[in-house]
Structure formats: C-alpha cells, structure tokens
C-alpha cells in the first residue's frame, strides 16, 4: 500500500475498538470524543501532506524493496544525503505542529527502522526475533502505520527493581508461554498518543538486573488487542474550547496513557526479545534505537525552541517593551540558545559516521548535547515568555467578548498594543503565549522537554562517562610537559 492518506488513517481508527478509559468513562466512539477529535485531525493532516505535491518529493521516496512510495522516516540512511532526506520529513512534520507534538509517526518509524537494520543484534540471541523485527518493520512501513511506545515501568517504588516490587506483575512481565504466543501481565508507561495509534511497541531502557528476566521483553501488538487497557491521564483541555481562546491547546494535545496488560497474548511472530537480561540491556546501544531517533528529536526540539523564541519576541514587540535593555538581554539569550541548538544539529549531521554495517549515524556527542541542553533551555524560554508577558498574560478576555456589542468600545480601547497592533491582534497573541507558558497544556510541553527521552540527570551521567572514555583530553598532559620543552627548544 505505501503512504496512507489522512482518510485512510481515520478509516483504520474507526475500524478498531481499543479499550480506552478517560476520566472514568470507557470510550466507545473515539472519533466522536471531543478530547481526541482535533489531535486525530492533526495527525491525519500529516498523512495528507505525504500526498501533497508541495511536499511529496521532499518527505517520501520510492522503496527499493517494494517499488511503493513510503515515508522518508523508513529510510535506512547510508550517506549524508540520506540523512538530509530523512531530516526533511522531521522538519516538515515538526513545522506543521510547531514542534509541539513529539510523537508524530516519524519518531517511532525511525526507532523501528533502526532495529530492523540492526537485526543481526537480535539474531545473536534468537533467529526468530531477528526475523520478527524484520517482518514487523516491513508491515509497518508498507501499511504506513502509526505506533506508540511504552518503555518505562510505572512509577511505584523506584528504589527497587521490577522483581522486588510488592506484586510481581505490577511491572509488565511474561506470565507463561502458550502455543499461540507469550502471555504478558502488568503495566507500562508512558504511551503518548496511544488512543489514536494503530499499534504499540514495547521495549525498555537498559537497567535490568539478574532476577528481572520476566521483564526483559520487546514486542509489538495492535492497539486494540484483547486484554490491553489504555488508561488516559486527565485531559488538559475538554475539546470544546475555541481556536481563538486556545489556539495551541485546542489543537496539539498529545494524550498520555498508562498501558495495562491483562494476560495479553503476544503472538510469537511479534516477540522481538524475551527472558534475556543481557539482550534487553544491550538493545539501545546495539541497535541505534536511541541515537537515530535523537535526530528527529533534535529537529523537532529546534522547531519548538524557535517557536517559543518567536512568541517571546512578538510579545515584547506587541507592547513595545523590547526597547528596554533587560528585555533585549532576555531575548538575546533565547536567540543564542536557539542558534546553539541549530549549530549542534548541523554538527551532528556533518560529523556523521558510518557504522560497521554501513548505516549513517548522526554524531552522538552533538545530539546528546542537544538532549542535555533543551531540558534547561526550553523551561528558560517559558520563563522569559512569562516575564515579558507579565500581568497581561492573565488579563486576556475571550473571543466571545470581542463579539459582544456592549463591550466593543472597551475591547478596542483597553487591549490595544503599541501603535499598529490592534486589540484583537494583541489578545490573540497573548492567548497563544498563555497556552504555551501558563495552561496545563504548556506545562506538559515543558515536562515533555525535560523527560521525553529519559531522566536528564542519569542521561548526563552516561554522557560524562562516554565523553571521558572517548575524548583524548590530552591538553593538560601536554601543558604539564611544557617545562621539558622549555629546556629543549632554544629561544631566539
Ligand atoms: C510528557 C511526557 C511524554 C512522554 N512520552 C513517552 C512515550 O511516548 N513513551 C514512553 O515510553 N515514555 C514517555 N515518557 C516517559 C519518559 O521516558 C520518563 O518520564 C522518563 O524516562 C523519566 O522516568 P520517570 O518519569 O518514571 O521518572 P523517575 O525515573 O521515576 O524519576 C523521578 C525522579 O527521581 C530521580 N531518580 C529516579 N531513579 C533514579 C536513579 N536510579 N538514579 C538517580 N536518580 C533517580 C530522577 O532524577 C527524577 O528526578 C514521557 C514523559 C513525559 C513527561
């Protein structure tokens, strides 16, 4: 089939009945649920872009294996040019969502492509696992499916490993083998966009210890598999707010969910890893499942930071406060953060390496530096928006006020910005800024930037240890030898 249209995506959603729980209600008609309606349409819009002549050649290609047109996020990059082809889709999708949706389909497509191309890793442990991941990649690529993933255990007692939790099946684990497949029980989080996806893929961050064998799992199943419950977090908007009042929250909320597996049968041909602590711990480093998608996250993060920077600059300009040095300093700080991320991203692309099996890999150090910096740069951007908007952020009336005759004069007079900025324009801008920096929606976006890729504290620890191992760090040694040179090199 190859690339889907938005309508084909909607049709697939309508054809399924996943068990979704939202605010104590079981959702029976996903398409009619206001909370999901607009986010579904936003994802459908991305699928449509694949068919738009203005984008098609930029974000899709003809697959060598099938001759069908597929999304560039399924491309195994073998060269700088391939990395750029793949980047094009990251950029187009990120710009279409202002970087606010982190788990657009391209993200997990890259994870899966990476696992597929490095399936020799799975083969070392079990030839079936390798064949399964290869077939699954082809299935997802050729049907253009939308995946969610859950790689973290629920946050229960973090001082104990999975097998030490009070209930042995609090964290998702294997129960038994049956002829049809592997029976799994327990929970996994944090499956962003789960209710509106086609499939879920389960794998884990490293950190398994002996005794955790039953939790060492990787598999994928349809999102409506019997026994799989999707428990949504409290929504941050009810789906009835207007675009004018909440231009971002009304469009781009990515629902997050806990996945509970109630003796779910995972067919054997969908099991990628099982009962092997060593393999589960090596999955990330050996398949590139962390490093390749970091390219998508870097591009998306850059777009998001650019959006926040532009919001701050427009806000300051709209009320004439960017003549003040303190405001200019804050805005310059933001612009310099943005330029730093842009530069790092280019370094990651230009300094790519080719792995042993011929895969082009964007530079680890540059991408991890982006991952290390954004959890502080993005919250700082939000703080600057809050500081520049100040009390005005809390004073925005609603769209309904603008449509009320009795209020027209007051609206036109008291909400006007600097010369040339009408009340309507100023209020619209401040509302957009408030969605980003004040609303629960905006707070989630902030929490996303901190944690979407794992705990930044531990990630920095890993980064430091790798950096120490890989970099020569010889300058100090050289400096300590200077006294010897002094004696050897005659001074003229
Ligand atoms: C908005 C959002 C969307 C996300 N989307 C997804 C998704 O689509 N799929 C998915 O699988 N995951 C997703 N994640 C989950 C993300 O991977 C985790 O939030 C992240 O790995 C951190 O884990 P945690 O939230 O359980 O925090 P914890 O690991 O419980 O950490 C809590 C605190 O304790 C500290 N801490 C805990 N353990 C240790 C330790 N061993 N050593 C030192 N400090 C420790 C941490 O530094 C942190 O401050 C998302 C997260 C967010 C916020």
Automatic annotation (TrEMBL):
This is 4-hydroxyphenylacetate 3-hydroxylase N-terminal domain-containing protein. Keywords: FAD, Flavoprotein, Oxidoreductase. SUPFAM superfamilies: Acyl-CoA dehydrogenase C-terminal domain-like, Acyl-CoA dehydrogenase NM domain-like. Residues 5-273 form the HpaB/PvcC/4-BUDH N-terminal domain. Residues 280-480 form the HpaB/PvcC/4-BUDH C-terminal domain. The keyword Flavoprotein applies. InterPro entries: Acyl-CoA_Oxase/DH_mid-dom_sf, AcylCo_DH-like_C, AcylCoA_DH/oxidase_NM_dom_sf, HpaB/PvcC/4-BUDH, HpaB/PvcC/4-BUDH_C, HpaB/PvcC/4-BUDH_N. It comes from the Bacteria. Gene3D superfamilies: 4-hydroxybutyryl-coa dehydratase, domain 1, Butyryl-CoA Dehydrogenase, subunit A, domain 2, Butyryl-CoA Dehydrogenase, subunit A, domain 3.
């Amino acid at each position: 089939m190859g690339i889907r249209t938005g309508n084909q995506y909607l049709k697939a959603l309508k054809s399924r009945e996943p068990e979704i729980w939202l605010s104590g209600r079981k959702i029976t008609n996903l398409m009619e649920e206001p909370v999901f309606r607009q986010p579904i349409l936003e994802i459908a819009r991305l699928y449509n872009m694949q068919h738009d002549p203005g984008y098609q050649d930029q974000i899709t290609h003809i697959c060598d294996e099938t001759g069908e047109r597929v999304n560039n996020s399924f491309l195994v990059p073998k060269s700088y040019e391939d990395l750029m082809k793949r980047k094009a889709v990251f950029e187009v999708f990120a710009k279409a969502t202002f970087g606010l949706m982190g788990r657009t389909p391209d993200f997990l497509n890259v994870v899966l492509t990476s696992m597929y191309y490095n399936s020799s890793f799975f083969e070392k442990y079990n030839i079936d696992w390798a064949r399964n991941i290869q077939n699954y990649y082809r299935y997802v690529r050729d049907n253009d499916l939308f995946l969610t993933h859950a790689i973290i255990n629920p946050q229960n007692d973090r001082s104990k490993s999975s097998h030490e939790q009070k209930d042995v099946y609090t964290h998702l684990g294997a129960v038994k083998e049956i002829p049809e497949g592997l029976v799994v029980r327990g929970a996994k989080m944090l499956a962003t966009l789960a209710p509106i996806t086609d499939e879920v893929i389960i794998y884990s961050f490293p950190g398994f210890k002996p005794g955790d064998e039953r939790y060492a799992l990787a598999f994928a199943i349809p999102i409506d598999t019997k026994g799989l419950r999707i428990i949504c977090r409290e929504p941050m908007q009810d789906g009835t707010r207007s675009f004018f009042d909440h231009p971002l929250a009304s469009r781009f909320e990515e629902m997050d969910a806990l996945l509970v597996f109630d003796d779910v049968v995972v067919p054997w041909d969908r099991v990628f890893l099982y009962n092997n602590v060593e393999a589960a711990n090596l999955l990330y480093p050996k398949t590139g499942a962390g490093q390749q998608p970091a390219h998508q996250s870097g591009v998306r993060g850059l777009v998001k930071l650019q959006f926040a920077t532009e919001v701050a600059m427009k806000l300051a300009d709209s009320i004439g406060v960017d003549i003040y040095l303190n405001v200019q300093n804050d805005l310059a700080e933001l612009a310099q953060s943005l330029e730093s991320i842009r530069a790092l991203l280019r370094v990651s692309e230009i300094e790519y390496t080719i792995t042993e099996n011929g895969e082009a890999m964007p530079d680890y150090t540059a991408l991890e530096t982006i991952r290390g910096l954004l959890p502080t740069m993005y919250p700082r951007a939000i703080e600057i928006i809050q500081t520049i908007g100040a009390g005005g952020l809390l004073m925005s009336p609603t769209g309904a006020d603008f449509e009320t005759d009795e209020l027209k004069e007051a609206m036109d007079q008291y909400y006007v910005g600097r010369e040339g900025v009408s009340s309507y324009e100023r209020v619209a801008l401040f509302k957009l800024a408030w969605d980003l920096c004040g609303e629960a929606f905006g707070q989630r976006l902030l929490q996303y930037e901190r944690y979407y890729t794992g705990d930044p504290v531990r990630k920095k620890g890993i980064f430091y240890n790798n950096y120490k191992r890989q970099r020569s760090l010889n300058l100090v040694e050289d400096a300590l030898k200077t006294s010897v040179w002094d004696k050897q090199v005659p001074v003229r």
